[in-house]
Amino acid sequence: MTDLTATPDLTPTPGQTVGPFYGYALPFDHDNELVPPGSARAVQLTGTVFDGAGEPVPDAILEIWQPDENGEVPRATGSLRRNGFTFTGFGRTAVDPEGEFSFSTVNPGPTEAGKAPFISVVIFARGLLNRLFTRIYLPEDTAALAADPLLSSLDESERARLIATRGADGSLHFDIRLQGEEETPFLRFPGHED
């Protein structure tokens, strides 16, 4: 007979991997549309999430957080509001079965003069015990990119993996590689565990 009054040694358990998700919580209407697609200020941000073997990850979820075109970080409540007028700076989307994602957003402006504008990204996927954080930098302002503290701390190859490519139509493309030789550089914040 087991003694139920004894207190076993308890150890922390790891964070839960992505899922299961329930329809009432995820997704929400127009979750990947920070601005209406096709509007004058809209920019399409696309990419693919790959695993360590170079295969597309079919079940990842991405969140982006960013300032508006003027570098203003939205502070209004209601990040899930999609009314076509209010830019909240937040978007979420699930990748498709080929690991591809798409957001309709704006080109973020620099939050300070001379700073490189970027989009913050959070990745949730199977096999990840905790979410991953990275950034997508815009490719145009080479002086600001060269002076960016994060980019300056990386070698040239790693820096290139954080800078999106610009399409002829103004769109942005950014692939995310979770592991391997071309792994996307990921960030660790205070209090964020491996």
UniProtKB/TrEMBL annotation:
InterPro entries: Intradiol_dOase_C (IPR000627), Intradiol_dOase_core (IPR015889), Intradiol_RC_Dioxygenase (IPR050770), Protocat_dOase_a (IPR012786). SUPFAM superfamilies: Aromatic compound dioxygenase (SSF49482). The keyword Amino-acid biosynthesis does not apply. It comes from the Bacteria. GO terms for molecular function: protocatechuate 3,4-dioxygenase activity. It is an enzyme of class 1 (oxidoreductase). Keywords: Dioxygenase, Oxidoreductase. Residues 19-166 form the Intradiol ring-cleavage dioxygenases domain. Its EC number is 1.13.11.3. NCBIfam families: protocat_alph (TIGR02423). Belongs to the intradiol ring-cleavage dioxygenase family. This is Protocatechuate 3,4-dioxygenase subunit alpha.
